[in-house]
Hints:
By secondary structure, this protein is mainly alpha-helical.
Amino acid sequence: MRRTVLIALAILFAAIVIVLPVAAIFTRAFAEGLSVWAAAVTEPETVAAIRLTILTALIVLPVNIVFGLCAAWAIARYRFPGRRALLVLIEVPFAISPIVAGLCFLLIYGAYGPVGAALQPYGIQLMFNLIGIVLVSLFVTCPFVVREVLPVLSVTGEDEERAALTLGANGWQIFRFVTFPNITWALVYGAILATARAIGEFGAVSVVSGAIRGQTMTLPLQIELLYNDYNTTGAFAAATVLALLALLTLVLRGIISYFHPARGATA
């Protein structure tokens, strides 16, 4: 009896919080027909928002991978002053509201901030353009790769790396043939999570983007804009694109779990 009640509560909660909202998005988006949905999705400003969102994710992803690998390697393999502080700093984006983070970036890198004011005479603007969107996206996504790779590095590979070093392997050979095979799935999973977070980020981007139609509107911002303009069909159509990108993330996660069950079980 207790088991049945727990399962029923879990299913009910998932249905109310996840299934019904997602179903409502697709139902409302296609309520007027496929042609209307296609017209809304291919509207120039929405296409520009989709393009900007994907471009941001493509820029953020490799930076996250490099930073995550370097940070996880340093923390797992070395003991140095400030190591714990570095761990805390990496977790900061999870503790700070994205809107607050966006405001901090605006105060520092904006035209009236210390960095922005110093760059302004050279014609360099960091806010209200792609650079600002990328900066805040990096901030909110930087912990994901580190959080996935660090536990794996902490428990595997160190003895093998020492053995390879003893046998005369250089640093690159050790990383390529010893370390990387151990962290491949963790790295891929962290990259997927970071990409999904970058695609769906709203709060921080809304502060630093400037909300210029057709130029600095990412897909989440475009959805809000369309809804506030009472274009509900366009808003829900754009929302389906964002939902499909999220579902793609789940599919990739499932593929990882299938080919590497241990990674899926611990994620």
